[in-house]
Amino acid sequence: MPHPSRLLVHVLAVALAVSSTAGCGAFGGSDDPPTGLSVMANVTDKSAMDSVVEAFRRHHPDLRVTVSYADTNVLQKQLPDKLRAGEGPDVFTVWPGSGNPASVSALASEDLLEDLSLRRFNLTMPMGVKPVTDVDGSTYAVPVNFSAIGSVYSTEGLEAIGGTVPETWSELLTLCDTARDDGKVLFALGNSTPWVRQLVPYALVATTVYADRPDFDRDMEYGKESFTRSRWRTALHKYLEMEERGCFSADHLNTTYEDTLDQVASGRAVGVIQIASTLSAVRAVDPDLDLRMTALPATDDPDETRMPGAVSAAYGLNPDSLHRRDALAFIDFLGSEEGQNLYNRSGATLPAIPNTSFAVDPAVKEVAERQKAGTTVPFMDQRWPNSAVQQTHFAQIRALVAGTADVDEVLTALDHAYQGRS
């Protein structure tokens, strides 16, 4: 087997390139628009989208499909501008809820999304999904997967240090010590990549805040709660405690998401705190690696543990698409049982529109169990009122772990962003 580092370079080169019948960059590297249907997806969902497109092409052999991939930061910063300029793709990744510039709420408010209320997938879509796909009673995105944020462990890595999956906060800290004593680190952390900075806080806040306050988002909306008054404070202090305890890889502010995959695949890290679709990315580096995803405990009572779990990936349709009929056919396929199963089969996630024929990946068995049991909570940014909160969160978490801001300053900045204050 090739060395993980060399294989990773190849995997990332493929992931960041255009997987299509035309040779253009993420938003079109030439002056000529792509011919046929153009689809743009997040690079973290490449294997999932590749599976869907391959099957869609079999159903529509005469239809030309161009697929491109871009990083989260590129999509959130550039996609809205491209759509406003009339240069956007036909079908594209859109974030559920309202938490960033490429979210359903933000794009729909500017008439940059086609109304999909009459599409067939709406007949079977769970009502619990609609708050993050709908705006003012109309549906603007087809949700494709239910994902989660938690600890992704290499079972070989756990065995190598003689450890087991921790169920309590105390056990988690002890496992950090065990990994360090064995010359490893428990969690690879890539805080050089901005979107990664939200994951550890989200994983902790799911328990510290939502276990006791399941209506926290509504209370925030009504002004009954705030970041500074809530147990977000507890979560951030626990984040710093994990940092001090040596739970994370060294120099993580200069470590990228891609570096963390290599650390897990090479055995230098036992695991990583990530989204569920990262399992497929790690497997791309080492297909033989056995992985397991679990909730990150934040208290010493396992019954209190919650896991961030929600619709993670969704797709919208460009209302100015020159290939509207083909784009609608692709949207319908994404919302079908076949499309949902294909999207999630390779990505270690669950269909956003459940069906009985889907076989759950053993690596995410706990996610499925928690989805059914109701011990998941929404991704925090999906219910934030504006994209500034998430961007502030990225910046403030970096400042917190760099030691240039304390917990009070971080929470105050988040409250200001939530309230629309500079």
Question: What report would you give on this structure?
Answer:
It is a single chain. By secondary structure, this protein is α/β, with parallel strands linked by helices. Helix 15 (387-402) runs antiparallel to helix 16 (407-418). The chain folds into 2 domains: 4-147 and 310-370, 3-Layer(aba) Sandwich (D-Maltodextrin-Binding Protein, domain 2); 148-309 and 372-418, D-Maltodextrin-Binding Protein, domain 2 (3-Layer(aba) Sandwich), CATH 3.40.190.10. The protein is built from 16 helices and 12 strands. Strands 1, 2, 3, 6, 7, 8, 9, 10, 11 and 12 form a 10-stranded mixed β-sheet that branches. A two-stranded antiparallel ribbon has the order 4-5.
Characteristic key phrases:
single chain, 422 residues, alpha/beta, D-Maltodextrin-Binding Protein, domain 2, 2 domains, ten-stranded mixed β-sheet, two-stranded antiparallel ribbon, 40% helix, disordered N terminus
CATH architecture label name of the largest domain: 3-Layer(aba) Sandwich
Distance between the termini: 52 Å
Stretches where pLDDT is under 50 for at least 5 consecutive residues are 1-24
Q: Residue-averaged pLDDT, rounded?
A: 90
User: How does the overall form come out from the CA principal axes?
Assistant: globular
Structure class: alpha/beta
Classified by CATH, the class of the largest domain is Alpha Beta
Number of domains as seen in the coordinates: 2
- Counting copies of identical and different chains, the oligomeric state is single chain
Q: What percent strand?
A: 5-15%
**Gyration radius, in Å:** 21 Å
CATH T-level fold name of the largest domain: D-Maltodextrin-Binding Protein, domain 2
CATH superfamily of the largest domain: Periplasmic binding protein-like II
